[in-house]
Amino acid sequence: MDLFSDESDNEMYEIGVFDSGGIVDTENRRLYNRINYRSEFSNSEFKYRFRLNKTSVDELLLKITPSLKVISSRNKGISPLHQLLLTLRFYALGTMLLSVADFIGVSKASASRIVHHVSRAIADLYPQYVKILSNTQNAFREIAGFPRILGAIDCTHVPIQSPDSNIGEEFRNRKGIFSMNVQGVCNADLLFMNVVARWPGSAHDATIFNNSTPTMQCEEGLFGNRWLIGDSAYPCTSYLLTPLLNPTSVAENRYNEAHIKTRNTIERCFGVWKRRFPILSLKIRVAMQTTQAIIIATSVLHNTCRLNNIRDVDPEVAMPQESGDITYAEGIGQKNHSVRQQLINNYFSV
C-alpha cells in the first residue's frame, strides 16, 4: 500500500445496514465517497483543515503506521493516511465524531476507533518530542532579565464530558465544569517540555506538581541550579519561584514584573496549543483513555508544528476564554523563601 499516494481517483463504496437476520437492508444503504485530500487541497488549504502541512503529515505517518490497524483493501479498508487525516480534522474542529466520519467517508463507529488508535499512536511519540531541554536559560533571560530559568509551569483545564456517575464529581472543577487539569512546562520558544494529563479538574495545581516527574527530577538535582517559574498557585521552593503577593521595595516590584513577563510564556504556549487544536477548548466527548491520549497527542503535534515553523492558524470555531483565577498556595514551603529573597537581592536590587 502506498501511504502517500497522490492518485486523483477517489474511492467510492457502499455500506449496508444489516437486520437481526444478517440481511442487507438495501433501502438504507449509504454511499461514501472517500476523497484523497492530500491531492485535493493546496498546501495552504491542507494546513488550514488539518493543522499540519503535507510534509509533516508524511513524516508523522511513517512513524505511526506500524501502530495502526489496516483492514485489507478487499473490504475497502481505511488507509493509514485517511485515519490520520480524520483524527487531525477531529482535533481541528472539536466537533461530533459523525461530522469527521462523513468528511473522510467512514461510519461513526469506525471514526471512534480511529481517533482512539491514532491518538494513542501519536501519544507514543511523546518521549521523542516532549522532553526537558538543557539550553533554556539564555532565551528566558532575554525576555526580562530573569536568570537561570529552566522552564515556565502552569496548569490549564480541558473540558470533558462527565466520565460516569461514580467518579464524575472528581472531575468537576471550581467553576462547576467537568474537566481535566493539565500541567504543562515550556521553554521560551513555546515548546512543551512536560505535559501531565491524568488529573481530574478538582485537583489543585500544586498537588499535580508535587506528584509529577519534574518535581522528582528537581529534588534529585538533575537540573543543577536552574529554576522553574510559576504563579502563586504553587509553593515557593528552592527550585520553583513564585511571585511576591505583597511587594514592598523597588527590587521586589522589579522581581514581580520580570516574573510576570517570563511566566507569560506558558500562558502563551497554552493559548497557541488550544487555538491550533480547538478540541482542547471545547468539550471532549470520548472515553477517558481516549481523552488523555488526545491531550498528549496534541502536545506532540504542537511541538512538531513549532519545530517545523508551521505558523499558527485561526480556529474554525469560536473558543471560550479561560479565566485566570488562581487558588493561592503561598503558605506552603515558607522555609524556601530565602532562595527567592536572595535572588531579588542579587539581581533586582541594582
UniProtKB/TrEMBL annotation:
MF-aspect GO terms: hydrolase activity; metal ion binding; nuclease activity
Gene Ontology CC, one term: nucleus
Cofactors required: a divalent metal cation
Keyword annotations: Hydrolase, Metal-binding, Nuclease, Nucleus
Top-level taxon in the UniProt lineage: Eukaryota
Domain DDE Tnp4: 153-303
Subcellular location: Nucleus
Keyword Nuclease attributed: yes
A UniProt-annotated Pfam family: DDE_Tnp_4
Record bears the keyword Protein biosynthesis: no
Main location: nucleus
Family as reported in the entry's similarity comment: Belongs to the HARBI1 family.
Protein's UniProt name: DDE Tnp4 domain-containing protein
